[in-house]
Specification:
Layout: H1 7-18, E1 28-31, H2 43-49, H3 56-73, H4 80-91, H5 101-109, H6 121-130, E2 134-139, H7 143-152, E3 161-164, H8 175-185, E4 192-196, H9 199-207, E5 211-215, E6 231-233, H10 236-244
Parallel strand pairs: 1-2, 1-4, 2-3, 4-5, 5-6
Helix pairs in contact: 3-4, 4-5, 6-10
């Protein structure tokens, strides 16, 4: 007659069934681009250049994201640049501009091709690369904008892939955007950590199964209605330190 398991064996078996399986250490660091890597403050000057209020830059960019999200929810999509251009034609005060509306739109949009990275980005990317992890970008904009941004900062060699939702079929924060990135990198979503300044991006990535890091350069409060990040850091260099010692 087989012997009954003792109490210790029973407790150990129960723990194995109930304890969560530890998430794998992220092999891929997935960066958002606009505002996370790029410093978009100079875009306000572009508005001022054409005779519009520099404060309009923030309204325009928020509206651009809103309309991109709305199209994704409706099962449709449009390129980042197209939405941006159409919104400028709606928002710019045509009678106050110092040039034609089309010329003003072109001048503002071309500002993306001259943006700098944030001051913490060069040292942060180098430190993250030194941890042995793969660095990849995923933008709601075009990959060419990310490529130019990194090239101007002499950081292209640190980034393995430049991905765009234009090839994913859906804008972030839809799950399809993040699973597309994982497939392109040949990893599972839980093997990636998404790094972004946008809580909506952090929330979407977390719901898609990625680990997440909120880059909180401004010391802001995280919105309670979003899924909380696994990490909160004030700079990319701090993120490298945290990942170097383990995410948990």
């Amino acid at each position: 007659m087989p012997s009954r398991p003792d109490a210790a064996t029973t407790a150990r078996s129960a723990a194995e069934l109930t304890d969560p399986v530890p998430a794998p250490t992220p092999a891929v660091v997935l960066f958002d681009v606009n505002e996370t890597l790029s410093d978009m403050a100079p875009m306000a000057t572009r508005f001022e250049d054409v005779g519009a209020s520099p404060a309009l830059a923030a309204t325009w960019f928020a509206s651009l994201l809103r309309d991109g999200f709305a199209l994704t929810v409706a099962g449709a999509r449009a390129p980042f640049a197209m939405i941006g251009a159409e919104l400028l034609r709606t928002l710019l005060p045509a009678d106050e501009l110092d040039r034609s509306l089309d010329a003003a739109v072109e001048h503002i949009l071309s500002g993306f091709g001259a943006l700098p990275v944030h001051p913490d980005v060069p040292e942060g990317l180098r430190a993250l690369a030194a941890t042995g992890r793969r660095l990849v970008t995923l933008s709601n904009g075009s990959a060419s904008v990310a490529e130019g941004l990194l090239a101007r900062a002499a950081l292209t060699s640190y980034v393995e892939r430049l991905l765009s939702v234009e090839d994913a079929g859906a804008w972030k924060p839809a799950a399809a955007a993040y699973t597309y990135a994982a497939a392109q990198c040949g990893v599972q979503t839980q093997e990636m950590v998404l790094v972004a300044v946008h809580p909506w991006d952090v929330d979407g990535a977390g719901r898609a199964g990625l680990r997440t890091a909120w880059l909180n350069r401004g010391g802001m409060s995280y919105p309670a209605h979003f899924r909380r990040p696994d990490l909160e850091v004030p700079s990319l260099l701090d993120l490298a330190d945290r990942l170097g010692s383990g995410l948990d």
